[in-house]
Amino acid sequence: MERKRLNRAESMAVLALLLLFLGCRGPRQTREAVVPEPAPTPGRMGTGPWLLQLHQSNLWVRTPLGDAGYALTRSGRVVSEMLGGHELGWTGVAISPDGRQVAYVETAENPDANTIGGWSLLWVVNADGSGRHLLVDLREHLPPEGVIRAGPILWSSDGSRVAYVLYSYEKKPRSRTRHPLAIVDAVELASGRRETLFQWPERGSSFEPRGWSVERGEFYFTFERETPSPPEFTPWGVGDFVTLRLGSGESTRALPAQGSLSPDGQHLLLLPSMLRWGDKLGPPLWDGQELVVPQDFSSFLVQRVAWMHGQPVAYITTYRGAECIFRTPPPVLYRLEVGGSSPRVERRTEHPWLLVLELSPDDAYVLMAVVARHPQDRDGCALHSFESLLVAERSRFEASTSLEELIAASVRVDAPVSQLGRPLQGFIGWLR
Q: Model pTM greater than 0.70?
C-alpha cells in the first residue's frame, strides 16, 4: 500500500503537538518546591516568655500556663534527637542566644540519590513564626568522598551564624567499628554564605559540639576516640574536651572533661571528669582560674548547667541520672558565683530533688524538673525519672525555703497523665 505523504500544513501541526507534549512532561524533577510555611495562626497572644516544645516531629510554642500557643512547624519532618549517654539536650533544634530565633533541621519530603543520612534541610525562623527561610539544602551540594551523615547544629555566640556537623564515614571500613571524621560547616544568616570552619583530623566514636564563642575566637567540642566498654560500668565520661582556636588551627585538650559556655560567649566553665572510677580529678576552672568548691562537689556528676543571661551566674545540678532502689542519691543543686575576690561554687540546701534546666532569656522565669523521690515504686532503674516539670518566677525560686514551698508557687507544664523520662515531654527551652 502506498503511504500517504503529509503536506506542509499537516507536518507543522504534528510538530506543534509533539513540542506541546514534551513541554507538558518537562524534565524530571528531583527537588520538591521549597515553599516557606505561613506564619502561625492566630499567632502570639501576649508578651511571653514562651516555651518551645517538640511534639510528633513538629515544633510547638506555648505559654507556661498553656492557655495560648501556636505551631512553629507543620511539616512533621523535624529531625531532633536526644543527646547520647546521660545528657539532657537536643541535636536538631537550637534556640538563638537572644531567644528570638530557632534553627531546626528536617528530612527531605522527596528523598533522591543525593539525599544523605541524618537530615537534609536546615531552616531558621523567628520565634513568632515569621521570617522563615531555608539556610542549607545539603542535596544541592555534592558531599565529600565517603558516606556522609548530617549531625548536630548550634549557634555562634553572636547569633550571626549556625554551625552544623557532617560525619564522614569510610566507604569500606578497615574494621567493624566505623568511626567517622567530623567536618564542621557554618552558614551566615544575613548572606547565606557557607564555609567550612574546620575538619577534625582524628576518627572517633563521638564528636559533640559544645559551643562557639565569636568573642573568644574559639570552638568547643567533646571528642571520644573509642566507645567505653562496657559502657554501663564507666563513670560520667564525656571524652576529651577540646578548645580549638579558629583561624590558627591550634587546639588544647582537657582529659577528660565537660565544658559549658556562657550565653554571651564570654566565659567558659570547665568541669573535669574521669575515665575510670577512682581517678584523681583536677579542679573545676572558670576562664582558666581555679574555682573554690564545696568538699562534696562532684564535677564528673554534673548533669546540667543553667546560665543566667544578664550576669555571669549559673545553677549547677549534680545527679547520676538514674533512680535505683537504695543506691542513687538525690540531685544536689549549686550556684556558681564569680563576684568578689575569687569565683566560687556554693551549695543550695533548700531544694533537694530539684534539677534546674534553663532560665528564660530575661532571667525572670526558671524551667525545672523534680526528680522522682520514691524510686521504690519503680522496678529497677529508670534513666531521668521525673515527677513533674515546673515553671516558677526566678524571684520565688530564689526566695523559697523548701521544695514544697517552691512547688506550691510554680506552674506545672507537663501532662501528669503522661510518663516522664529522658525526653522531658519534648521541652527544649525558652523563647522571647
A: yes
